[in-house]
Design goal:
eight-stranded antiparallel beta sheet, Elongation Factor Tu (Ef-tu), domain 3
Length: 138
């Protein structure tokens, strides 16, 4: 019986040693990947300056949210400038801002693709917006 127990222990130790070796190989492979990742060249500083310049451009106000229907998530907007479907807009009030593309617009339940200055349109929005929010062209 003693011989059987020793044989069992050696099999277990062999298995655990094999597992340890596999783990060590994985660790060394991960370390090698990290070293390779660190050797990538740094990004140019010119690109960062260009990003700052883009942020400095002021957005043009297009209109103002007059009413918001929360169940259907539609904002009623009085326009001060023309607006098309596909335009990017920012709905801003205080610190909160919602950036999105104009997916659908309606005037008196009639879908439209282009709204003129002075029109009051219903615009589908992604998130709730407050009454009085300013609509900016982005």
């Amino acid at each position: 019986m003693a011989a059987r127990k020793k044989a069992r222990k050696t099999k277990k130790t062999r298995k655990t040693k094999a597992k340890r070796v596999k783990k060590a190989k994985r660790r060394s492979a991960k370390a090698a990947k990290r070293k390779v990742a660190k050797k990538k060249p740094a990004k140019k500083k010119v690109a960062k300056k260009a990003k700052v310049a883009k942020k400095a451009v002021k957005a043009k106000p297009i209109g103002k949210v007059v009413h918001f229907y929360d169940r259907i998530c539609v904002a009623i907007v009085e326009l001060k400038a023309p607006l098309r479907i596909g335009d990017r807009v920012v709905l801003k009030r205080g610190k909160h801002a919602l950036k999105q593309r104009v997916a659908s617009m309606q005037i008196e339940h009639t879908p439209i693709t282009l709204a003129k200055k002075g029109d009051t349109v219903g615009m589908k929005v992604d998130k709730p917006v407050k009454q009085g929010s300013v609509v900016l062209a982005a």
